[in-house]
Design goal:
Elements (H helix, E strand, L loop, with lengths): L2 H7 L16 H13 L15 E2 H11 L4 H12 L11 E2 L13 H4 L1 H4 L20 H11 L1 H7 L1 H19 L9 E2 L2 H4 L8 H4 L26 H16 L11 E2 L1 H20 L5 H18 E2 L4 E2 L2 E2 L4 E2 L18 H12 L32 E2 H13 L3 H17 L5 E2 L6 E2 L5 H12 L10 H4 L5
Antiparallel strand pairs: 1-2, 3-4, 4-7, 5-6, 7-8, 9-10, 10-11
Helix pairs in contact: 2-17, 2-18, 3-4, 3-7, 3-18, 4-7, 7-8, 7-9, 7-13, 9-13, 13-14, 16-17, 17-18
Family: Belongs to the glycosyl hydrolase 63 family.
InterPro entries: 6-hairpin_glycosidase_sf (IPR008928), 6hp_glycosidase-like_sf (IPR012341), Glycoside_hydrolase_63 (IPR004888), MGH1-like_GH (IPR054491)
Pfam families: MGH1-like_GH (PF22422)
């Protein structure tokens, strides 16, 4: 089907009636119920069925929303994750719950073998984890959680205990993952970037021989339709990359997949800004973190900005070239306070133009180029809209003075979250729920927007720019 025609006709599907006014009053109550149902006592699972363990960047986003219900629980969420940190500084992307059966999720602890295969890298012996990482949202989350109740945070020593771990996490990324030699961090597996199945990974993944289908069983298909999930071929490549990384002792820089990603690096920069504020709260200057954020922003612009695309592009480190695909990742640097004004204006035009359609053909931000050959409105990260990326872009729009667009996106997030049953992701045209429902970060980030009234200028990212109170 012609992509231009698709923009104007919209695919058939179950439409969610859209009221441009504020979200229904029940959204707050139902979002709180999702987080309560997903709470395990020390952390929050993304969903009880599909994702029954603790995920790294999920917990960071969940803590941002959970702080409005219970600052103590939000602190505990992050503390539980940080307690599983490896000796080399990495924060693993999954912390496994030992009470969950091994066959409930794949790859399971017996695949990763963290305590044995990761011994040289300092994997903990008391808890089982994966060996890869996820985007570094954690320092930003920790700072926002502190601001929710500074008195409680100070009384518990929350930031004082978290800061060394967060600093070690950033040192790991900057010291071990600068695989391109230009100052930016590389991911060594699509699961690390968080947007697992993006078409941006197709080219570098094509070099990876997939693991045989008989060598693993996909537990995700027990909870989702195949049309919404990665293909078996892609999954086989994910398994091969992870197994090779494990068998190499989780040593960095050896694998076939190494990509500099705009969103991963933008979130690191945002968290460096947050670490500067945390250091100031603890009585230090924070200048080192602020200077590092400035250097990383300059490197991001120099290395990944593409004027012709009107956005940032991923870079295939092994091939030494940019990846010519427009994914939502390339818009996420909009959340950075130090981005040049002309780049901000161009990113906003791209966000609202035909490739992503925000405010025109789409209500939330699609995960991939609407005009791209690989666009699929339902398949995992190949087109559907996700709530965490839309939340980040709402924050970015508001940070840079695009209040009208930010308000409209906020309304869209809140309405769609509630109307979809807090879906994992949605069709960007129809808002039809895809993946699982009762999803943790969808509920948490809806709560954050409900408590963060635009008229009150309580923009969470203003807190790293200098507008916080506490």
């Amino acid at each position: 089907m012609d992509r231009t025609a698709q923009l104007t006709t919209r695919p058939a599907g179950r439409e969610i009636a859209y009221d441009p006014s504020a979200a229904p009053p029940s959204v707050q109550v139902r979002a709180a119920q999702v987080l309560e149902a997903n709470w395990t006592g020390r952390s929050t699972v993304p969903s009880r069925g599909l994702y029954p363990h603790q995920w790294s960047w999920d917990s960071a986003f969940i803590a941002i929303g959970l702080r409005h219900l219970s600052p103590l629980r939000a602190q505990t969420e992050l503390e539980t994750l940080l307690a599983a940190q490896w000796g080399d500084g990495r924060i693993p992307h999954i912390v496994f719950n030992p009470s969950v059966p091994l066959d409930a999720y794949f790859p399971s602890p017996d695949f990763w073998r963290s305590s044995a295969a990761g011994r040289a890298a300092g994997a903990p012996g008391t808890v089982q984890t994966s060996g890869i990482v996820q985007p570094p949202v954690h320092a930003l989350a920790a700072w926002l959680v502190h601001l929710a109740d500074p008195g409680l945070s100070r009384a518990r020593g929350f930031l004082r205990r978290a800061h060394p771990r967060l600093a070690a996490w950033h040192r790991y990324l900057l010291g071990r993952r600068d695989l391109g030699g230009a100052g930016l961090v590389s991911v060594v597996h699509p699961w690390e970037q968080g947007m697992d199945n993006s078409p941006c990974w197709d080219r570098p993944l094509s070099r990876v021989a997939p693991a045989p289908a008989r060598s693993f069983r996909r537990a995700d298909l027990d909870h989702g339709t195949p049309e919404d999930r990665p293909t078996d071929l892609d999954y086989g490549r994910y398994v091969r990359l992870a197994a090779d990384y494990r068998d190499g002792g989780y040593a960095d820089g050896r694998g076939e997949f190494a990509v500099e990603d705009p969103a991963f690096n933008a979130l690191l920069i945002a968290s460096e800004h947050a670490l500067a504020r945390i250091a100031q709260e603890l009585g230090a200057s924070g200048r080192e973190h602020a200077a590092r954020a400035e250097r990383l922003t300059a490197a991001l612009v120099q290395r990944l900005w593409d004027p012709a695309a009107g956005m940032f592009l991923c870079r295939d480190v092994r091939a030494g070239e940019p990846i010519p695909e427009r994914g939502v990742s390339g818009l996420i640097p909009l959340l950075l306070p130090g981005l040049p004004r002309d780049l901000v204006a161009t990113l906003v035009r791209t966000l609202c133009g035909p490739h992503f359609g925000l405010g025109g053909t789409t209500r939330l931000v699609p995960s991939y180029d609407l005009l791209g050959a690989a666009f699929d409105a339902h398949r995992y990260w190949r087109g559907p809209a996700w709530f965490n990326t839309s939340w980040l872009l709402e924050r970015g729009l508001r940070l840079h003075g695009e209040r009208g667009r930010a308000d409209a996106l906020r309304r869209g997030i809140l309405h769609t979250a509630g109307a979809s049953g807090f879906a994992e992701y949605v069709d960007p045209y129809t808002a039809r729920a895809c993946g699982t429902t009762g999803f943790g970060w969808t509920a948490a980030l809806a709560l954050d927007l409900l408590h963060d009234r635009p008229s009150g200028d309580r923009n969470g990212l203003t807190a790293i720019k200098g507008g916080d109170r506490g």
